[in-house]
Amino acid sequence: MKIMVAVKRVVDYAVKIRVKPDKSGVETQNVKMSMNPFCEIALEEALKIKESGLAKEVVAVSMGPSNCVDTLRTGLAMGADRAIHVEASRDLVPLTVAKLLKKLVEVENPGLLILGKQAIDDDCNQTGQMIAGLLGWPQGTFASKVVLDKEKQVATVDREVDGGLETLCLDLPAVITTDLRLNQPRYATLPNIMKAKSKPIKKITPEELNVDVKSDLEVVQVTEPPKRKAGVILSSVDELIDKLKNEAHVI
Amino acid sequence: MEKLRATSSLRRSLKSILNRQLSSISEIRYLNGKRSCQPTFSLIRDYKSLGEANAIRYRCFSSVSTVVQRNPSFSTLNSDDISYFKRLLGEKSVIQDEDRLETVNTDWMRKYKGSSKLLLQPRSTEEVAQILKYCNSRCLAVVPQGGNTGLVGGSVPVFDEVVVNLGSMNNIISFDKVSGILVCEAGCILENLISFLDNQGFIMPLDLGAKGSCQIGGNVSTNAGGLRLVRYGSLHGNVLGLEAVLANGDVLDMLGTLRKDNTGYDLKHLFIGSEGSLGIVTKVSILTPPKLSSVNIAFLACRDYSSCQKLLMEAKRKLGELLSAFEFLDIQAMDLVLNHLDGVRNPLPASMHNFYVLIETTGSDESYDREKLEAFLLSSMEGGLISDGVLAQDINQASSFWRIREGVPEALMKAGAVYKYDLSLPVEKMYDLVDDMRTRLGDLARVIGYGHLGDGNLHLNVSALQYDDKILEQIEPYVYEWTSKHRGSISAEHGLGLMKANKIYYSKSPETVKTMGSIKKLLDPNGILNPYKVLPHSLDS
Hints:
The structure holds two protein chains of two kinds. By secondary structure, chain A is an alpha/beta fold.
């Protein structure tokens, strides 16, 4: 079986996000970019499945500008066998990504498609669900545990829902999106970084896949959350009661 | 090495013969709150022979033990003093509360404990000046205190000294985006400065584990080293100017922001690293380098110490301008971190290695830097210098690698009693000391070696379940003698404080120490500033 994993290049999780002065979006110039943490978890899960002998090949896919190759190299250094880069200069919305992925799935025929549950830049949480819908495959979203049964060709997925766990059984092929507690992604070791250099990254354009990347969504504006005011130290209980009554209006 | 037993009378007669070359005779230790004393070997360096033969003779004298005595010339606080300070600073900044005094009386390692009855929190240079002027006239001893993160007992009172904490002076005065010169008050916490500069696109030229509590005034006063020294150099280079208050309340305004200024003696250097014994630093101007966007961190394993050394040489050659940190820890340090800190995982879980090295590069071009680092690492791996390694793929991974290195002191604290030594040694000899100590101590305690390999700075730590005189006897003065023999420094970046005040002769000639004493006498004739520290106690008499 082949596993396809979608990985997204995003502003690093630890970078303080700055909004562009013209409010058109988030500043990405001169900012450290890394693999989306949920995508790292998705890739780790695919690699684990492969290491347990239940899959033969892991293919990493990324979409976007040419720098996405760096993210794919990271994926290859973690252990993916090969990579596909769909080169697109403009921003891609989840539906476009899902359409592109569908075309790639038709070419590659993976038995399992794993994605992060959401990207930490736009927080859309849509691509996995959309691609499952487009393909007509079963979906296990927010997976916190994945168990494959090769003979029955099913995947058992635990999902963290409000107040407990939900266990789903999916017929393969299926789409799984990963949650934070599924696993702890591995580091890229030097020998693997070395090996990754000779692994192939196939380039392909949306035109070649016959997908129109035009979006019918328009970002009106992006703004920062309001700044939190500094706290004050009060000198008496009376003052506190007064503030709670007259300023906070909670008592 | 020649060892002589000297009685106190013999010592007195020797003193005249040797023309004040004898070092001090006392050592105090505060272990688990108890104060004990023990004789220590004093050492004499004969520098006179240095010129011709380039040789140093060592002699040891076992000496009569004395406990450091409260200097009787210091006054004790009375109610008039308290009311003067209350008038000067206001009620809120004059603290006599037992609990709060407990915190300022105890050092970070809980090894040293004073019994100060008064904490003052001035908000301006003028207030500091008034405090010192008054204390000087009353002959009240003073301990300047910043974040109290020192490791040698320099920031806490020994007896009943008045603690002057600069924490309330925490304003950033100016920042020049063109030159990168930051002017701020001494009480600014290092981490706050780091995040302030981060927003401006700059970084502090120093970074250290204690950044969350330590203050810039304390950093400057102790000439703190830290993790970026290999790239940006010491504070003697980065501090462009400072303002300091002398013991008599005079304010020395040397708050220049010039990179070049050859007018007379550069006195600011006296206040960098003198541990508050010559004056209280109240403002600082620092040259800050621009923040470069591309930072890469590799965590590597090496088979033996000589591979670490060779790797350092190679890294300097091949990474050149990119290299911003080169740190190492041994397997014992790694083991401690993995066992005592939550949420730390071994980046190289396949097997344990004898040595771990953390290399950081900082540059301006992400893909170029990464390529250069990768090429360097791969060739070092092929050459056998590195046995395994990982390269951080995002900032989160990078911080988890740093967490291991920066977590060593914390892990040591959690592991029990710890004897800490901060030594500068020639890189090739550095780890021999750790091996020697392991042989000496055997099963008595664990010996841990880590530090700033790039700067030739070893942090030698001895970890045991509890403090034990038997262990200490095996360590001291052996460690100091060993260091002195190899022409190292017994305090690379931690300072002398109370712990090593009497050990200064291991690293400095008697003439040098004598000159230091004269400078101290000149700037602080009554000796009220941070007494019993930095300089040997024998100079006082």
